[in-house]
Amino acid sequence: MAESLIRIEIKAGKNIPKVLKNIIREFQTRQKPHQEVGRLIVKNMKERFDKQVDPQGRPWDDLAESTVKAKESEVKLFVSGRLKGSIKFDVKAGGGPEKPVSGLRTFTIITAGSRTVSPRSIGIRAKVHQFGAPSDEIKSAGRAGEIPQREYLGLSQKDVEQVVEIYEKWGNRILVQNARSVR
Questions:
Q1: Which of 66, 83, 161, 183 is the most exposed place for a label (fewest CB within 10 A)?
Q2: Contact 17, 181 (CB under 8 A)
Q3: What values do phi and psi take at 120, rounded to 5?
Q4: Per-residue H/E/C for the chain
Q5: What is the pTM (predicted TM-score) of this model?
Q6: C-alpha 52 chain-centroid distance
Q7: What angle do CA 147, 43, 99 make, to 5 degrees?
Q8: Rounded to whole angstroms, how far apart are CA atoms 156 and 134?
Q9: Mind listing the pLDDT tens digit of every residue in the chain (183 residues)?
Q10: Is there a contact between 37 and 160 (Cβ–Cβ < 8 Å)?
């Protein structure tokens, strides 16, 4: 299984009452909490994209003068909006290995129970900007110079806190619903 930045493990032993086992199973199989987390992560990543900062809040490197002249703009990573628009998320059961998505691997950010939430972005440009590209790779594409890393997929500390809040809210909701069924 891929390494996660946030991992929530829920284990049910033999001595745990049936109602608690039901709560654990329900949390592990529900889609809504994980989808809410995915939407939050994508929204936050797109906001950082607009601010042109990485997940830690550091500004992206400036564009080369030749790039500014060619684009007639100093706005980084934005020509048509396709790169920013390609930021999506997947919720998968079972975790499983990471898979390539059109030049950029998705990476597991959150594993909660038997579900994973993974952001992704599509296209070779996504990979180049997320990780940077050395000059020898760029020359083979008919361009000069290197492209610095401009990380835009990832979690900030604020993201982590918001994700924990979402899972706490859903955990409490599931707990209350199941407690009512015991009465």
A1: 183
A2: no
A3: -155, 160
A4: CCCCCEEECCCCCCCCCHHHHHHHHHHHHCCHHHHHHHHHHHHHHHHHHHHCECCCCCECCCCCHHHHHHHCCCCCCCCCCHHHHCCEEEEEECCCCCCEECCEECCCCEEECCEEEEEECCCHHHHHHHHCECHHHHHHCCCCCCECCCCCCCCCHHHHHHHHHHHHHHHHHHHHHHHHHHC
A5: 0.72
A6: 17
A7: 60
A8: 26
A9: 345 556 666 555 565 566 667 777 777 677 788 889 889 999 999 999 899 999 999 998 888 887 778 777 777 777 677 888 888 888 877 654 444 444 444 556 667 666 777 777 767 777 778 888 776 665 555 565 678 888 888 888 899 899 889 988 888 887 777 766 555
A10: no
